[in-house]
Records
---
Amino acid sequence: MKLYLYGIINSSDQIKESIYGLEGSGVYNIPLCDIGAVVSEISQPIRGVTKGAVLEHEAVVEKLMENFTILPVRFQTIIDGRDNLLSMMQSYYKDFKDNLERLHNKLEFGIKVIWPADKVKENIIKALKKGGQRMPESDSSVSKRFIKEKFEKYEIDKEFEAKADRFIKVMDIFFSKFAAEKKLGKLKTENLLLDAVYLVEKDRQNDFREAFEHIKNAHTGLKYLFSGPWPPYNFVVLSKKSGLLRDSEQADLFDKVTQCQTLVGADSI
Amino acid sequence: MDSVITKSKDVTLLEILDRVLDKGVVVSGDMVISVADVDLIYLGLKVLLSSVETMEKLRGSPFIGPTQEPT
C-alpha cells in the first residue's frame, strides 16, 4: 500500500471531517506519539504534475490548516507502506516537533513588488549625467571608449542596486513590525524588486494587511501582489541530520519515541 | 478545494505552484518513492516565475507597467 503524504500535524487524533485527496481517496491521520502524518492511499502509478493534482494537494493542506498546525509536505511525496512512514516519522520526530512548536498559530504571507526597471534606470542615467559623473567625452580611443562604457554600466548598476536596497529597507521595516520571521528576495529579475515571504502570528494578520495597504498607498508607481494566508511552506526548517541518522542514534530515538507512545497509550505502531 | 479556487481568483496560480512544488517538507530515504520528472518540470516553471509579465498575465489582468518612477 502506497501512502501519499500531505503534511505533518500537531495532533495524533483522527481527522473528524471527511477530506478527500488525490484520486478521491479519504484522507486520514497516522499518529506517532503526539504528532501525525496526514495521508491518503494511492494505488495507481504516479501521475505527472498536473494543475488539478497540485490544487488537490493544496486543498487538503489548506483544509487541515483550519484546525491544526501543519508542516506542508512537498507535492508527490509517496511512502511505501505504513511501516516505512512510521520509520520516517521516527527519524524526523524531533525536527517535526520543533517546527510544529515554532510555527504554531502562525501564517505565511507573500508579497511581491514590481517596479519599472527601465524607467528607474533612465532616471539614474539622467541623474548621473547631471551630476557629471561620466567620463569626459574627449576620450575617443577604442580602449578608452570601452572602459568608459564599462564604467558607466557599473555606475548605473550600482545605483540601481542601491535604490532597490533603499526601497526594500523602507518596506521591510514596516512589514517586519508585524512579522515573526521573514525571507527577502531582492531583484530576482530587474522588474521584480521584492519577492518576500513573512511569517505572521494569526492574531496580527490584520495589522500586517494594514501595513501592506499603507505601503501600497504610500509608494505609487509600483505594482504589488499580496497573497496568503498560506501554510508555512517557506518556513519549515529541517536539520541536515534528519533522515540520515546513524543506527545507534536511530535506536536511541526509537526508544524515546516508543516510551512516548507508551505514555500516550497509542497502539498504532 | 473551494478555498483554493476562491483564493486563486485573487492570487496567481504560480504562487500555489511555487509553494507546492518547490517548498515545504522534503523527506528523504529509501522508504520514499522518488517522484519522476518533478524537478525537470519545475525547471520550466522557474522560467515562468522569473517572468513578471507572465505572472501578471496568469493573474488575470493585463500587465501595464507603471509609467512613472515609484515615489
---
Amino acid sequence: MIPRAETAHWIAASVALFIGLVLIAELIVGHEVFYRRKWRAYLFPSIVIVASVGLWVITIFSTFSTMHLLAHSIWAQAALAAGAVELALARGKIHRPAWSLVPAFALFVSGIAFLVHEQNPWLYSRSAFLHHAIGWMLVVVALFPLGRAVQPGRLVWRTGFALTFVLLAVLLFADRDAAPIFGRFGLGGP
Amino acid sequence: MGSEIATSIPNEREQERVERRPWRALAVQLLGPLTMVGGVVWGVAQPYRILLIDHGRGGDLYDYLFQGPLLVILVGLAYTVFVAPGLVSDLEAVERRDPAS
C-alpha cells in the first residue's frame, strides 16, 4: 500500500499549495488580523513540522538508493528545523528577524539536495527536468527568507516566500513517474 | 445649517480606507474558489487523469483518489471551509473596532 513516487509528490504538492494559500491570505489581511486566532498562527509551522515527519517516513522507504535516502533525510531535517523556528516565532519564544536565516538555509540546502541527487541531465525525463527546476528554484527563493532576515518590514520578501509554495506545488503536480518531458506532446525524453 | 443635522465631511484618507476594505475580504474569499476552478479546468483539460469518470481502466486507491485535479479542488475546498470564513470575520471585527486601521 506504499504510494508511488508521483502520488507522494502530488500529496506534497497539495500541502505546498495549501501553505501557499494560507501565506497569501496572511499577506492580504495583515499580521494583526491573521494572528487574532492562535490556531492560525500555529497553522503554517505545524504543517511544516508534520510534513517533515512525513518526509522522514518517506526516507524509511527510500532504501532503494543511498542518494535518495540521503536527499529525503536532508529535506526532512531541513523542514523540521524550519518548522521549529517558525513555531518558536509564532509562540513568541524568539523574536529576532535573523531567525529567518534558518528557513533560508533550509530552502538552500533542500535545493542543493535536489540538484545533487538527480543523476540525469535536464531533458532526460520529466522527473529529471522537474528535479533540476525545483532544485534551482529552491536555491533562488532562499533569497526571500534571507531578505526577511535583513529587511523584515519589506513586503516583497514575504510575498516571494508565499508564492514560493504555490510555484513548488505547480512543479510537484507536474511530476510523473514515467513521462517524456512535455507529456503527451512527446518533446524531449529518452 | 444647524449643528444638529450637520455631519463632518470624511477626509480623503478615511474614504480611501473604506474603499480598500472590501477588496481585502473579497480577495481572501476568492482564493479558495479560484483554486477549485483551477482544479476543475485542469480536470476538463486532462480528463484521463480522473479515474473516477474513466474507471474502465482500473487502478488502485491512489489512482482514484490522489489525482492532481482532485487534490487541487480539495485544497481549495479546505481553504474555503476552514480558513477563509474566520479570516473574513476577524477582518470585519478589526475594522469595526478600529475604523482607522
---
Amino acid sequence: MQNANYPAIRKMYEKYHDDGFELIAFPVNQFGCQGPGTSEMERAYAFKKFGFEFPVMDKIAVKAKPVRCKGIDPASYEEFKDDPDAMLTAPLVDDVTSSSPESEVYTFLKQKPFDGEIEWNYVKFLVGRDGRVLRRYSPGDPLEQGLEEDLKRALKGDALSEKKRNPYL
Amino acid sequence: MLRDDGADEVVEVVEDATSTRRAAMVRVSALALTMGVPMRSNDWRANADSSSSLSSLYDFKVKQYGAERDLRAFDGKVTLVMNVASE
C-alpha cells in the first residue's frame, strides 16, 4: 500500500515542481516502530525510495500520545555510519522522538476539519500557497485519492472540488 | 432631605459611586489577570495575532540537519507534507 506513494509522488514532483510544488517529509518512529534510524538514516532512506532529494526534516512525533519505540543510538550512528554492516548490530536505545510531545507543525496540520490521529506512515496534507491546509489524504495511493487533480487546482489558485477534505470524517 | 448645597451633595454621591465602580473594576481586573483573561481593549487583537500566527504552515520553524529551518522558505508554494519511515 505504501509503495504507491513513491512512484506517484515522484511523478508529480517531476511534473509540477517548476510550477511551485514542494514536498516536505518528517521521519517518524511512532507507527510499528518503523522509523528506528537516526534522522540522517531516515533521510537517506527517503531519498533512495522516492528517487530524488527533497526537504526531509529531522525526526519528530506526530501523535498526541507518546509511543515507546527503540531507535539506533545517534552515538552509534556516528561511530558506524561508514560501515552499514556494523550498523545492523548497533545497539538500540529508547527513541526519545517517539515519546516526545506532538510536533507543533502536526498540531497545526490536524486542525479541524483535518483532525483525527495520524494513523500510519505516509499520511499526506496538501497545503496551499498561503500556508493553509487544503486536504488530507490517507497513507494509500495518492493518485487514487485525487491528489494530482487537487494539486493542479491549487497551483492555479482554484478551489478544490467539494469532496471530503478529510478521508476519515 | 434638600439642602442649600444639595448640588455639592449630589457631586459627592457621584464621586462616591465613581470610586466604588473604580474599586470594583480594579478588583475585576486583578481577578482577570489572575485568571489570564485579557482585559485591555487591545488584548483581543494581540490574541488574534497569536492565533493568526498559527494559520499558516509557513509560520513554523522545524529542525533539519540538527539546525533550525524556517518554513517561510516555502511561502507561496503548494506543499505536500507527509510523515515517512524506513521499514
---
Amino acid sequence: MYPPKFDYLRADSAANALELLAANPDAKVMAGGHSLIPAMNLRLADPGTIIDIGRVADFKFLSANDGYVGIGSGTTHAEVAASSDVPSALSEAAGLIGDPQVRNRGTVGGNIAHADPASDLPTVLVALDATISTVSGSGTRMIKAGDFFVDLFETALNDGELVAEISMNQDGANTGSAYAKLSNPASRYAMVGAAARVTVEGGVFTAVSVAVGGLTPKAQAAPSVGAALVGQAATADNIAAAAAAVQNDLGDDVMGDIHASADYRRQMATVFVKRALTKATERAG
Amino acid sequence: MSTDLSGIPQFSGARIRRREDPALITGQGKYTADFHEDGTLHLAFVRSPYAHARILGVDSAEAAGMAGVVAVLTGADINDNLAKGVPSGTPVGHAPYSEGKQPPRQVLSTEKVRFVGEAVAVVVATSPAAAADAVETIFVDYEPLDVVVEPETALAAGAPIIHEAWDNNVAFRWGPIGGEVAEIFANAAHAVTLRVENQRVIANALEPRAVFASHDGVSGVTTVWSTTQSPHGTRDDLAAALGIEADQLRVIAPEVGGGFGVKGSVYGEEIIATYLSRQMGKPIKWVATRSEDYVSTYHGRGQTDVIRLAADENGRFLAADLQILFDCGGYYSGIAPIIPTLTVLMMCGVYAMPVIRAEITAVFTNKHPAEPYRGAGRPEAAYLIERAVAALATEMGMDPAELRRRNYIAPDVFPYTTPSGAVYDSGNYAPGLEKALALVGYDQLRQEQAARRASSDGKLMGIGLATYVEICGVGPWEMGSVYMDENAKVTVLTGSSPHGQGHETTWAQIAADALQIPLEDIVVKHGDTAIIPRGIGTFGSRSTAIAGSSVHNNALSVRDKARQLAAYLLEAAEVDVVLENGRFQVVGVPERGLSWGDVAAAAGGDNLPEALQGGLESDTDFAPDGSLYPFGTHVAVVEVDPETGIVEIVRYLTVDDCGVVINPLLAEGQVHGGLAQGIGQALYEGSRYDELGNLLTGSLIDYALPRSDNFPHFETHRTETPTPLNPLGAKGIGEAATIGSMPTIVNAVVDALAHLGVRHVDMPLTAEKLWRVIHSRQ
Amino acid sequence: MKVSMTVNGKTYTRDVEPRMLLVHFLRDELGMTGTNIGCDTSQCGACTIHMNGMAVKSCTTLAVQADGATITTIEGLANGSELHPMQKAFWENHGLQCGYCTPGMIMAATKLVENNPNMTEAEIRHGLEGNICRCTGYENIVRSVKAAAAQMGGGD
C-alpha cells in the first residue's frame, strides 16, 4: 500500500511531455494512474520516474465532425460513457470499465497504452476500426487499432511516443454497435468481451465488424463472423450461426485462469459475439 | 424477583435508529489505524513465499542500514523472550478426541515455514513506507520442501510431514460417535449419499487487522488498541504470551470494522507489537494491507464431508451418517478443533432422527490456518443436512417442502435432545415453512417452473428451500452491569464488545424498558479493559441473549432497589409502592410519589437503613443454563443462464425465528449481512491454492466478494418462539442467515438443473462449473 | 514536493514524497482519518472522496495528482451540524453496521444521486459496484440511497 519511491515530473503541455520523455527515456507515463498506481501499491511496478500527463489540456477533448469522432487520449472513461457522439459500443464499454470512481480518473489513452488483455476498450476499438494518433519528437503517426495492440501489455508505441487521439466513424445511418462482456466476478475485468458494429439495409447485413478480447493476449478482430453474416438477412438464426465463426479467429493463445478456463472462455466467445451482434442489430434498426 | 411489571415495554420491539451512527457517518469514528502518537514506530513483516520450506538464514544487512529503519528482528531475537507463542488452547486430549497434536506456533518462525505468508522477520521503522521499503531488501534463504495442499493427500502414506515431531499429518481425530447404522442403510427404502465440499473462505472484514501498542514506562502499563471482538480475551492472551500480569495491559477495542469470527483470536502480530512497545518504550503500530490480511488472518470453513441419509417408504428419516475431513492448515489454535464437532452436534438439523453416526478427521496441510468464521461449524451442518434432504426428496420424487414437514421435530417435545447430544431449547418449525411458502407463492412458482421446463426455452428456473436450526448463545457468562447516578442517569457496562452489531442502542433499549426511563438517560460503555472489569466478547450470536439478559436483570435489580428506597422515603409499605409512568407511587394514592430523580438523589445517603445503602447499582453477570437454537426457513428463486452458467437470484425470502427481538431494524440488518456472506460463499467466494500452496485468490482482484448488484432485494420475515432460557426470551440472529442461505441457494440451483439429472454441485457455483454441468448433460 | 489543496473548505500546503497516496495525505498529513483504507487494489471504495466534484478513490490517486484540487471528505460533507441528506438516510435506514465502508459508500452514493436523482434500484446497485460492504448485504444501503435521492430532488 506504499508505492516504491520515484521521481515525479509533471507535464503541462503535449510538447512539454515529449521533452520530458526525451530527457527521461525510461520514465513511465501516467495519465489517470488507474492501472499504474494499484500495481505500485502492490509493488508490482517500480517505475523510477513518472511523467504525469494528467493535466495536459492538449489531450482533453471529444469532438464529432462529419460522421467522425475524435477523442483526446486524456478523456476519461466517464466522459466517453456519457457521450452520445461516440459509437454505442464504445460508450457501453467505457461504462463497464471498473466502477464510477475508476471511470472518473482512468483515461482512454492510459488504458490503451497499458494494453491489458482483460481491458474492454481495445476490443471495441478493433471492432470499430479506430485510428490511434500518436505524437513523438519525430512527428505524428496514425495507427489502426488492429495494428496498435501487439501482444500482452505490448503496443506499437515507440519509445518517446504518446497516444494523442483515438478517432473513428460514428455509428451512422442503419448502423448500430454494441459491446457484451463476461465479467470476472472479482475484478470485473473482461474474461470475454465482444464488440460488434453492423449495418443493416433492407433487412440484410451490408457491413459487419466484430472483435473479441479478454481471452486472447490482445484484442482480436473476428473477420470470419463478418464474412459469414454480410449479405445475410438480419435474423436471430443467422446471427447465432455466424457468431460461431469467431472460433476460426481466436488462434491458439486463448488464456485461462482460476476464474474461467481457456476452454470455457473459448465457448463463451461465441455466446458474447452473438449477444453483441444481437444488440448492435437492434440498434441498427 | 419481587418487582411489579406494570410498565409496558416502550423500546423493546421498536425500530430505533442507532446511537452509534452519528460518529460513523461523519468520519468521527476511530478505528485502530486512526490512533497515533508522536514517535510511533511502524512494523512490516517479512513473510514466506513458500508453503513449506526450511529457513536456512535471514540476511537483513541492507535493510538495517536503510533510512528510517530502527531494527530488523527475527524469531531468534524475540521468541525466547516470550512466555508463549501464538495462542493454542483447545484441549484435544480427551475422548472422543484421539491422536491430538498441539504443535506450538512461534510468533516468528525460525526453522520452518508451513504456509505462504508465515512471518519470518519484522522490520521496525519510523514510517510504514520505510518499513515496506526495507522488507523488499531482506533475503531469506529457504530450502523448499515438498508441499501438501489437499487434505486427502496429507493423509496418504508418504505424504510430506508438516510437523516433524510426529510421523503423520493427522491433527486430531474425534469419534466415531453414535449407533450402528450399516444395517439401517442396507435395509432402508430410500437413501442418499452426498460428498460435499464446504470450501475455505476468507472473512474479509472490511477493516484489515491492525494493532497499536503504547507503553507507559511510569505505570508499567501498555495500552493496546486492537481490532478485536474480545478485548478481555486479547488482554489475557497477550499477558500470557508476554509472561506478564493482565493488569500490566489495557486493551481497547475502538471502532472495529467487522469481525466475523476471525477477529476473536490473538495473532503473532499483536504479540510482537505489544512486546516491542514494552521492550523499546515506543508506540508501535501495524496495519495490514488487504492482501497481507489474506495471508495473515485466519481463513474459515474448509471441510470435505460425506453425508448419508436413510428414510423409510414414507420418507420418514431413519438414520444419518457423517464423515468430516477438516483442513486445519499449517497449525491450529484458538477454537478450531471445536468447529467440526459443532457440525456433528447440529447434523440432525430440524429433524427427528432416530440414529446417527459421525466421525471427524482433522489434518494439517500447507495452507493458512482455519478458524471460526461466521457460523463456525453450524453452516456446515445445515448445509449437509439440508442438501441431503433436498437430494432425498428428488430421489423419492417428493416435494422437498413435504419431505421436511414429515420429519420436523414436533413442537410439543421441547426441550428436545438430539441423538448428537444437542438440547434444543425451543422450536416450532412448520409455521415458518408454511409462512415462507405462502409469502413466496410456492405453488404458483412450481407451476411456473413446470411450464418453463415444458417450453424448454431460455433460463432455467430453480426454487430452493432450507429449514435451518443452529446453536448459539454460548456462556459461560457475560457482563451487563447497571449503575444509576444521583441524577438518575444510567451507565451500562458490558463485556460484550461490539463491531457493528449496535449493542449501545439495544442495551439502552433493554435497560430503559426495565427502568422505565428515557433512552437518552442511558450510556452504554464497552471495549476498554480499564473501564469494563471483565468480559468475554462478541461472537457466536451470544450478545443479546447473554449480555442483554444481564443488562435486563441488573436493571430490574436497580429498579427493585429504587422501589424499596422509595417506599422508605414515602414511609409506605414496600408492597404498596409501584413504578408507574416513570414514577414511584403509593398504590391508590397517586399524589404520594417520587420521581426517579428524587429516589436517585436520595440513594447513597449516609443515613439510610443498611439494606438500602450502596447506591443504585447492580453488577451480576448472566450465566445461561443452556444454549439457544434459533431457526427458520429460507426460500430462493434463481435463474441459471444455460448459455453461460451465470446464476441470477430472482427472489430471496426469509422467515427467521430468533425468539424475542429487541430491535427489529438491527435484527434485520444482521439477516441481510448474514445472507450476503452465505450467498457469497454459495456463489462466488473461496480461497484457492495451487499445488505449491500459493494462495491464488490473494487479493480482491481474485477473491470474489459480492457487490450490491449481485443481490436482489431481500424479503425478511419472522416468527417468534421465545427461549425459556433467558428473561428476554431472545436467541441470536448474527449467524442464522449465513447458516440458512448456503443450502437454500445451492438447493435452488440444483433444483434448476434437476431435470437434467443433476444431483449436486459443489460451492462456489461459478458460471463455468454450472455451464459444464449443463453442457455435459445436453 | 510541495502540494497544496483545499480540503473541506480549507487550504493546506505540505511538502510530501511524490509517492504519497492521497488517502495517506488526508489521514497522516492532515489527520483526517474519516477516510478509510479497505484494500490495496482499488476494489473496495472505502477511500472514496470527492475531488473537483467527482467521486474518486483516494488510494489510487497520488497526493501530487491532487495538487491544486478541491477535496471533500466525509468530515466535510455535512453543512455544519446539519447532516447531508445521504448521511441522514444512512442513519435512518440502518445503512451501516461496522461503519468502515460507510464514509466511502456515502461519498460515492452522494455523487451517484447528484448525477441522477431518479435511479432505479438496479441502477443504484450497479452504481455502487465500486464500493464493498461486508456487513449489510447492501439491502439497507440501497434503501438509504433511495431515501436520500427522494430528499435530494429525485422522484416525480
